[in-house]
Amino acid sequence: SLTAGVVAVQGNVDEHADAIERAARAHGREVTVREIRDSGIVPDCDLLAMPGGESTTISRLVHGERIADEIRDHVAAGKPLLATCAGLIVASSDANDDRVDELELIDASIERNAFGRQKDSFEAPLEIDGLEEPFPAVFIRAPAVDDVGDADVLARWEGRPVAVRDGPVVATAFHPELTPDSRLHGLAFFENEESIGPALEEPA
Ligand code: GLN
Hints:
The protein is α/β, with parallel strands linked by helices. The protein has one domain: Rossmann fold. Helix content is about 25%, strand content about 25%. It has six helices and eleven strands. It has helices at about 15-25, 55-65, 70-75, 85-90, 185-190, 195, and strands at about 1-5, 30-35, 45-50, 80-85, 110, 120-125, 135-140, 145, 150-155, 160-165, 170. The strands form three sheets. It has a seven-stranded mixed beta sheet, sandwiched between helices. A two-stranded antiparallel ribbon has the order 5-8. α1 (about 15-25) crosses α5 (about 185-190). The structure holds glutamine.
C-alpha cells in the first residue's frame, strides 16, 4: 500500500487525509495516511499534501522542523505534492512577502489574499484542465498566481491562474479538501503520468 503524508503543522489536515483516501479508493489504490509534524516521515511518503492555513506560519514551521528540505527532496525525486492555498504560497518561487521562505517547488509568483475583501470567501464552479466537469472550488482569503514562469496553468478565475502544475507538483489557490469531490486529489496523485513516478508503480 502507498504511504501518503499530510503536512500537519496547520490547516485542514483531516480533510486532506479523507480526500486522499477517497481519491485512492476511486483509483483502486490502497493508501495509509500519516501526519507530518517532524522530520523523518516525509522520506517514507509516496505522495504529499500541504494544506492551507497561514503561509507565514507554515513557512516558519516547516523550516524550523527541518521538514522543508525533505519536501524538496520528495519533489526532486519526482513524487507528487498537492499544495493548497497557503500551501501554494509556501511552495511558490516568490510569495511577494519577506516573511515567507519559499520552497521554490513551483515556478510561479504569488499575490496573497488576491481576491479582495468582499469576496474573502466564495465558492465557484471551476473549469480545470484534466477534469471533465467543473470543480466546486472553495476560496478562502485565497492567493492568485501572478506570473507562471515554467508552470502550466490548469485553471483560472477572473482571468487569474488559480491552479497550476509544475512537474510532480499540483497547487491550487482554493481548498479541494473542503468538498466531497476528490477528483482534484485524484488528478494530483493518481492520474498524471509525470506525477506518478516510479514510487507509485506497484502492482494493484
Ligand atoms: N490568506 C492566507 C495566506 O496568505 C491563505 C489562506 C488559506 O490558506 N486559506 O497565508
